[in-house]
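Can't paste images in this forum, so I'm doing it all in text. The chain is below; anyone willing to post the predicted structure tokens underneath?
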Amino acid sequence: MRDKIPFNRPAITGREIDYISDAISSGRISAGGAYTNKCASLLEERFAINRVLLTPSATAALEMAAMLCALEPGDEVIMPSFTFVSTANAVLRMGARPVFIDIRSDTLNIDEALIETAITERTRAIFPVHYAAVACEMNSIMEISKRHGLLVVEDAAQSVNAFYHGKALGAIGHLAAYSFHDTKNYVCGEGGALCINAPEMIERAEIIREKGTNRSRFLRGEIDKYTWVDVGSSFIPSEISCAFLLAQLEALDALTEKRRAIFEFYREHFAEMEEDGLLSLPVIPPGCAPNYHMFYILLHDAATRDGLMVHLRQQGIQSVFHYVPLHTSPMGERLGYKRHDLSFTEDLSDRLLRLPFYSDIEESDLMAVAGEVRAFLWRGRVGKR
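Text version of the structure:
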């Protein structure tokens, strides 16, 4: 059965085809052309980031970040288990070990109060993940990193155009990763960016991104030829992808405002159910300005969450759970973790349900989603409408 209301539909601004056609006409469709540079400059200027390097994905950006952290076998990196596999894979590829700690019950972000107890002599970095584009407590995390001489890599994959006390997410840690995947707010199908806030890392980041060569310096006319100088890979996107992306980035404010309205619609229509104790809604702490990447609800238990998901699907509405905690996965078990190691992470993951959320969703569809959630949760409750 085809979903009448899908979970996601990428936003289209109307300028993507024009920019792609222009890129094709220019005769430059590989990496490093005008559209790649325009996207990077827009992000740098808008979010006060020292240097932005566009990448094929946030996964690629995280892998570059792990290389720039100079991780080695035996090193440790502290991160939440409630994240996508790319956060941990970037560390494992360097031979280092992800050290999973629990999340906060309000924001579902890494619990900053647990970080210092997880630090050992082998700890080299902290990888906080801004879940749902609501900021981790970055002031505390940066203070901890400074005390212990650790690097901070923000996994800001969901968090383009989100802020923490006036600072853009992605502009706070030493490094950060953005995503422009099909499921994000601003997209190019597959794409990402490495944000570099530590100036001393810029030159090596350019080398790693260009297959380990100093080609970037050659293109700027700083050297007369380029050569192999370090390890690296092809961490560069095509000009076609960046042409599509520029149209999206130019519409940051308009797309964010549409998503804010959807988020507020859901909050308003579920407020009574939260008051009745049927579900819990997302928490946005003071000082956090999200980009409204998603809307989720927390149910009482896994059975209720799974039952609601089935009910919605029967009505042609696609809803999804989110991350299966990495420490409970087969790979997590190989690293020595087991279920019940992180109580909040496991509990919250089991009860979370993400609802349909995309910029052009119709109000009638939002009403249908809210109505079916209400019908399921209030079913059999005497005196409830």
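The first strand starts at residue 51 and ends at 55. DSSP finds 14 helices and twelve strands in the chain.
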